[in-house]
Each structure stands twice: as structure tokens, then as C-alpha cells.
Amino acid sequence: TQYSLILTEQRGRVGLITLNRPEALNALSDTMGREILAAARAFDADPGVGAIVITGSSRAFAAGADIKEMASKSSVDMYLADWFSAWDELARVRTPLIAAVAGHALGGGCELAMIADFIIAAENAKFGQPEIKLGVIPGMGGSQRLTRAIGKAKAMEMVLTGRVMGALEAEAAGLVARVVPIDALLEEAMETAATIASMSKPVAMIAKEAVNAAFESTLAEGVRHERRGIFACFATEDQKEGMAAFTEKRPANFKHR
Ligand code: HXC
User: 45 and 68 in contact (C-beta within 8 Å)?
Assistant: First the structure.
């Protein structure tokens, strides 16, 4: 498929989506959201892809939703178009999704990174929800995902003041999984994705679903969800293979990878 604002490629079993709107610091227009969703869904549907990486440039992962595109919209325009709904759909993609973030990840850019399953950040990454300075609030899940990721005190401070957080603070706060030098960012993210993609894809999907259940349910419901998930694993050939390989002291040769 030909996209206008993103680049896609497949390296081994990893799908790579690169935001490619440098003149606007990867501001997330409606078209860009639809392209990202379409690309992620295509990788999700491909059994040959076991993990997806989404990245931007060294200067900006994404500097937010496209302010110029939104500025003149009315509330009714947004209701009728179900504005931002592509991002809810992106969160429903089942293949593990890693955000490799360098530079600005502001507003919608920070929210997109948080829609990913985890973030690997370059040392120059900057995270923030500056919407309040524009007279609005986060609209792609930021008020919810940031609060769950870093807790109320820091999330409230960031959402109310628009303060930007550097990579090290973001790591200490639990927003990012790991900080790496900028030159190593893509390589580290691709390697991590390749590790995930070497596992059984259905089992990785079940694992992702189980961790995500922690954000959407009570502890008891989440544990029940997990229990059903692990029982489902025992219905796969890959569970039999993984455990046989351990017993036979050899690497597992998963069928679904
Ligand atoms: C549209 C954007 C943009 C954005 C940058 N640009 N961010 N265009 N939407 N979110 C454009 C600029 O207009 C400029 O275009 C070009 O990208 C380069 O940006 P500069 O500002 O010249 O770069 P710099 O001085 O390096 O500053 C970088 C920056 C700044 C600090 C990231 O661009 C900035 O503050 N951007 C906005 C960040 C923000 O507020 N994000 C939240 C958006 S709201 P020209 O044509 O002038 O060269 C959001 C959620 C909305 O995401 C949900 C509720 C409705």
C-alpha cells in the first residue's frame, strides 16, 4: 500500500511504521491517523509479522495532533466525524506495538506513544501534554493513560501546567521502559521487537491482552482474565513445543512465528 505521511517496511518478522511529515514535526493529521491505523492493521493481520515498531525522526516522534487542521473545527464537526476515533482502534491492534521515541512527543504524540504497549526512548525524548496552553485538554487518551502510567501527582501537574518531561524523568516515573542513546534507538527497538516476534504470535497476543486487562478491570476480574488466557495457551501447539523444547534442552521451534 502507498501511504502519503508514513513509511512502512518489514524487517524479518518486525513491521516498522515511520512517521514521515518532517515539515510539521510529524503533527498527527486525520489522514496520518488513518494511515497509521491501516498500516498497523495490515501488520496485525499478517502471520509473518510478530511485532510492530512505530517511530518518528530524531527531532520529533510527533509534536501533537495537527493544530492547524483542528483549529477551526466545531464541537459538532468533531462529534459527527468521531474525531480521534482511529486512535481507539489502534489501541485494539493485538500484535505487540513498541514506540521508539526521539525528540518531541507532545500532546497527541505523547498519547500515541502511550497507545503503544511500551516506549523505548532516546536520551533527547521529551514527553508532555501541553494541550491546556491551547485552551483544550488531551483528546487521544492522555489524561487516562498518563495517569495510569505515572500516577496522579505527576500526571495532574503535567496536564495542568503543560510541563514537559525529559527521558530520564520519564523512565524514573515509569512512562518509558528504557532510555538508550539516540544513535541506538531504532536498532534497540527493532531488536526488542524481533525478540517478541520470535515467540508464538498467538501467545504474545494473549500476554498483551492479559497485561492490558490490568488497566480495564478490577484485580479479581484481571486475574480471572489471565487464568483463561493461560488455559488458552495450553490449547496451542506452541505451548507443547515450548515445554518439550525445555525438557529436551533445545531451542523452541514455535509453529506460529
Ligand atoms: C501542526 C505543527 C505542530 C502541531 C509543530 N508544527 N507542531 N503543526 N500541529 N502540533 C509545525 C509548526 O507550525 C512549524 O510549521 C513546524 O511544525 C516546525 O515547528 P516549530 O515550532 O517551528 O519548531 P520548534 O521551534 O523547534 O518547536 C518545536 C515545538 C513546537 C516545541 C514542538 O512546534 C510546538 O510547541 N508544537 C506544538 C506542540 C503542542 O502544543 N502539541 C499539542 C497539540 S494538541 P511552519 O509551517 O510554521 O514551519 C494535541 C491534542 C489535541 O495534540 C486534543 C484535543 C483537541
Answer: no
Told to judge if 23 belongs to the known catalytic residues of this protein, a careful annotator would answer no
Which one is catalytic: 50, 131, 141, 189?
131
Q: Over the stretch 45-63, which tens digit does the pLDDT of each residue have?
A: 999 999 999 999 999 999 9
Best mutation site among 20, 25, 111 for ligand 1, i.e. most ligand atoms within 8 A of its Cβ?
25
Q: Model pTM greater than 0.95?
A: yes
Q: Are the beta carbons of 68 and 44 closer than 8 angstroms?
A: no
The yes-or-no verdict on residue 1 having pLDDT over 80 is no
Is 111 one of the catalytic residues? yes
pLDDT at 193: 98
Q: Are 93 and 112 in contact (CB under 8 A)?
A: no
Q: What percent of the chain has pLDDT over 70?
A: 100
Ligand 1 atom 12: residue of nearest CA: 24
Q: Residue 198 gets which letter from DSSP?
A: T
**7 forms bridges with which residues in the sheet?**
18
Q: How far is CA 175 from CA 9, 131, 142, in A?
A: 27, 19, 12
Q: Ligand 1, from 67, 74, 110, 164: best to mutate by most atoms within 8 Å of Cβ?
A: 67
In the chain, alpha helices (H): 30-45, 67-70, 75-81, 85-90, 108-115, 142-150, 152-161, 167-173, 185-197, 201-216, 219-233, 237-247
What secondary structure, in 3-state letters, does 83-120 show? CCHHHHHHCCCCCCEEEEECCEEECHHHHHHHHCCEEE
Residue from 12, 14, 36, 27 nearest 87 by CA: 36
